[in-house]
Amino acid sequence: RLLLSLELLLREQWVRAKYERREFVHLEKQEPYSAGYREGFLWKRGRDNGQFLSRKFVLTEREGALKYFNRSDAKEPKAIMKIEHLNATFQPAKIGHPHGLQVTYLKDNSTRNIFVYHEDGKEIVDWFNALRAARFHYLQVAFPGASDADLVPKLSRNYLKEGYMEKTGPKQTEGFRKRWFTMDDRRLMYFKDPLDAFARGEVFIGSKESGYKVLDGLPPSTQGYHWPHGITIVTPDRKFLFTCETESDQREWVAAFQKVVDRPMLPQEYAVEAHFKHKP
Known about the structure:
- It contains six helices and 14 strands.
- By secondary structure, it is of the alpha+beta class.
- It folds into two domains: 2-152, PH-domain like, CATH 2.30.29; 161-278, PH-domain like (Roll), CATH 2.30.29.30.
- The strands form two sheets. It has a seven-stranded antiparallel sheet with strand order 4-3-2-1-7-6-5, covered by helices on one side. It has a seven-stranded antiparallel sheet with strand order 11-10-9-8-14-13-12.
- A hairpin with a 2-residue loop joins strand 6 (101-107) and strand 7.
- It is globular, with a radius of gyration of 20 Å.
- This is ArfGAP with dual PH domains 1.
- InterPro entries: Arf-GAP_dual-PH_domain, PH-like_dom_sf, PH1_ADAP, PH2_ADAP, PH_domain.
- Pfam families: PH (PF00169).
- Residues 35-136, 158-262 form the PH domain.
- It is found in: Cytoplasm.
């Protein structure tokens, strides 16, 4: 459903660009997605109160950052999001708006979520394309030997899987609690609410060569869970126990985890793994 709504939004704007705005005939009318600078106002969800307020956003490739300001006349930004660690994905169902966009970046090596939308579908698609263009230019510098075909999949990414599961703590003696989980590449994050700005916790999931495994079910002695369909993720340091409400949910989560575990780790991912191991 999410991919369908995203496809319809992007297709609508492509059709409008071709036939309504005639951008493909009149090159001067084309949006300067790769101009390296963009500013405008987006409705942003408040971190604490959940209220959407108009905020000024500025994308500047020269500084390698997306910034937003709490006031239009503010000199200092409220947040600076480095293009290096930035991702944008359409989330209309989660945000509750057909043009809802979720932007994530790393803040002190933890994931920070920002939820925005614009009433105009063209405007939000233009922002999405501008962020991808900025990512593309960053990656061209960061990976000078890579081809365009290698870089395009790195411009933005959809989450491998999202949804509710129950989890217990590291001692596995406390009760299981319902949390919203997001599988973003090798980061499994869990939130009390899907629209939380920060995750309650993040789990790194490496490859089977590094000792990571995904198992159906829970250890026999496990207690305190409500949902019947268990999953155990084995890491070099500990086991993580989750439960799903339905068998189909369990199958989908196991498939998503297995896909990550079966993929060999890249050199830079070992550094991420080391950070997770040394987290306070």
